[in-house]
Amino acid sequence: MAPPKAFVFDAYGTLFDVHSVVEAGREITQEPQTLSLTWRQKQLEYTWLRALMGRYEDFWKVTEAALRFTVRRLAITATEAQLGRLMEAYLSLAAFPEVTATLERLKGLPLAILSNGSPRMLEAAVHSSGLGPYLRHVLSVDTVKTYKPSPAVYALGPKALGLPAGEMLFVSSNAWDVAGAKASGYQVCWCNRANATMEELGFRPDLTVERLDQIPGRL
Amino acid sequence: MAPPKAFVFDAYGTLFDVHSVVEAGREITQEPQTLSLTWRQKQLEYTWLRALMGRYEDFWKVTEAALRFTVRRLAITATEAQLGRLMEAYLSLAAFPEVTATLERLKGLPLAILSNGSPRMLEAAVHSSGLGPYLRHVLSVDTVKTYKPSPAVYALGPKALGLPAGEMLFVSSNAWDVAGAKASGYQVCWCNRANATMEELGFRPDLTVERLDQIPGRL
Known about the structure:
Chain A is built from 10 helices and 6 strands; from the N terminus they run βαααααβαβααβαββα. Chain A is of the alpha/beta class.
């Protein structure tokens, strides 16, 4: 792998821990883990389905729709105020523990986020996690009104950074996002935090790590 | 709901029972139900992801890739011959018990299939189930090289049948397919066989039944 000239990070699941909403879920269910996993799966499905239908709605609306589906599916009783608190958790997600130190080590090169998140959601999460000073660009799919893994999304990285995709390292914990970025020509690192199985989509990562702080030593 | 002038059926899960592959799965796992459910979920995900990536491969290849992912994820040991037998099960799927009698009652109007399946897979399933004589058209996404819920797929129905989408009843057991067809202007019946939860995609069925033989009495 050629030394990258810039790093482009996925946000949710890669820098920010989406399952940190589990705590907020305890208020309405004794199985907050199931709530969190179902919500996340459905959130992704709705991005894919809406993008394919040509019916884009921003990630806040998709996330809320996925939450409403999830509470109905799991037969959870929740007030609007309780659902509101779960949604608010998305505005103050925790970064994974090693993130700040890793970005500190990589910051000699341009660092960016490329995410499904709406601009408002990303701004809030970047602010609450304190990652703002490290990031040259925070790129949202909202610019192109579709979702990953559409090539239109991955094209935002080269456009903003002024580099070919093949000269940047795209980093994601989501195996399908790894395949999408690779199909769009990036060098790709899969941060396989949860011992997941690589997807069978015809594309493989150039590098696999378990935590982001393993990246600097592997370049 | 206006009386429909034609019926367009989804194939897998609606006419044909994809979980009838469970029997073939017993050869390689003690939890064939988990195999079947994971395989089906991943098969659908790969259609959505490949369509969004602009990397269409036909449904046979997607189904095989999903099977390979599933056995790795579930840590199942299987030979190529055993995987081959699971794939072959897709060529001789069982129709749900009420299907033939229902098509018999509806056959005064044009009946069609509109499916993700490849032409070869659909031909085999239609033949093995004996549904051929009832069907005026068997329409495959392979014509347009993308997958449901892309509007390009749903447009195949009006084109083949020479009727506007709004004058036909599209029937599917897949809630996301119901939303996709509704977004493309069809009247839509959701055959909710498994007490599933309707998706939150902004579209609702015009009619909901639990089995196909409830349709004639509800028109």
